[in-house]
Structures are given as structure tokens and as C-alpha cells.
Structure prediction request, 342 residues.
Amino acid sequence: MLAEVKPHTIAYKRTDFASDQHVRWCPGCGDFMILNTMQKVFANLGRKKEELVCVSGIGCSSRITYYMDTYGVHSIHGRAIPTSTGLKLANPDLSVWVSTGDGDCMAIGGNHFIHAIRRNIDLNIIIFNNRIYGMTKGQSSPTSPEGIKTKTAPEGTYERPFNIGEVAIGCGASFFARVPDKDYKMLEETMHAAYNHKGTSVIEVLQNCVIFTDGIHEQITGKATRDENQVVLKHGEPILFGKEDAYGLVLDGMKFKKVKASDVSEDQLLKHDMHEEASQYHLALARLQLPDFPVATGIIRNVEDVSFDKRVHSAIEAAQKRTSFKNTSDLFKSGNTWDVVG
Prediction:
């Protein structure tokens, strides 16, 4: 079920958010699904177009600002988040959406990413994770799997990859979700939930690049393997996976343990709680990886916390109450002033 959204002020259709620009992505790219879903979600938010802003950095993902018929900023490499921070602080009523890639966000933009999360500024950050630098023709990215051959690692990369969920939740993210690009329903529901969350919302999309990493997420998202290798989290329900939900998770001391669901009681099976305040549980879910465990998808963490923009404007209001200067113009005109007459 979709998260609650505001009533419509204007009746929009998905196509109302499609710009007149020709979409320049490779046929079969996972970016198309993200774009179409964003357009559909925006049409159902009940917000005027001028209240929605799309911001991006550099890369295939960042072309999306041209294809969304909203206000937008195509910023520079790795700087979409600070640009968005300025927009949100200048006008807190805006709904600001950041589109970025695993290279753009987790490498040159990594510092901005972790501090946006630390501050919990009210942004919606969508990370297109294809585990490669696509637009710059196939170099290793911070999420490229160890051993994969790329233009910058022809013998196979020897760097350990980032787990985006581990980074985000480890930095204190109040909202983190992981969604396959093929699952448009989950993506739509997650975008609605991110919109309604007040704070930094991070959505990692497992996105396919048909040119450089085709099938990179197939073990997790493919029809033949997803039942065994992907666990779809649903708040308040047991964490089950496999054919006919044959397997589940239980706590074994401080660790998760994979069990046959039929071998334990229902009370022993872990139930997903995305609102759990303690982040250790969500961090452990984000860390689940093949071959020992299935990869967790859906909304992993969604907890309430005061957003940075609200804190900033509350501090400004408090400072204004303590002084007779209501703005910088009042300050400049205070004390000894004079007019220079030519």
C-alpha cells in the first residue's frame, strides 16, 4: 500500500512531468524505470511543479534533471548534495530530490553524502548503483565487486567495495531503502515513503548498466534466483525468503542465523521493524550478502528525527528574538551611519 500523500491540488498525469528532451540512455538501461517511476510519483504528490526540484551531479544518472519537467539543477561532479542543501535551507517548503550514481555520490561526493546524513537535512537522495562509472566508459567505482575487470583494473579490481546501506546507516541515516530497478511497485512505494519522511531519505536502486556491468545484480533480482537470494522486507512481518518462504532469520546471540521456517516457531522468527530506534539491527540487515545470506530489499530503516533545516530555521528565529536586528539590512543601518553625497 502506498504511503499517505497530500490531496491533489492539481490533477497531474505522469506525462505532465516528462520534459520535451530526448532521453539519451542506452536501450535497456535501468535508468528508464527510475525515470518513469519518478514521473508517476511526482504526479501523485499533490504538489505544484514549482515546489518540486530535481538536482543531480555528473554521470548517466544525472541526466535525469533534463527529463523531468520540474525546476532542476545539473550541478558538478559530486556536488549535487551541497547544492540541494543550499536550496532546502533557502526555501524549506521545496521538495528536493537528488539523483546521483555510485561513483558520483560515493567517491568525489562521499564527504557531502556522509555529512548530509549526519545533519539529517530533508532531502530525497536516489543512488543509481550499477557498480561502475558508466558515462566515463567503464572504470571501477567504489561499489565495484572485488575481482571484476574494468578499464582501470584490467586484471580485476582488488579494492573492497562500499556497501551503500552500511555507509548510510553507519553515519546515522534515518531512512534507508534498497530497491531493484525491475521492481517498479516497490520503487514507487519507497519513493512515496521517502517523500513523507522528514529528514535525509536514501534510496539505493540496484540499477543495471547494459554496456559495462550487464547482469551485475541478476543473482539478486533475476526471476530464477531472486526467491533464494533476495529477502523483501515488510514492516511488522516475519523475515522470510526462498521458494514458498521456506527460510527465515533468527537471532543466534548477536548474529543472524538462516533457518528453515518449519524448524522454528513463528515467535522465534525475526519480524522486520523499520522503526526500531537502535540502528544495529538495521545495519545488520543492510550488511546481509551472498552467498551466506540473501540481500535485503525494501525499506530497511525509517525512524523519526528532527531535520537539519528545521533546526537551522529554529535557531535563526531564536536569534532574531534576542536582538532588535531582524535582518542584515537593520544591522548595516545601525550605529554611526552617514550618506556620501557626490
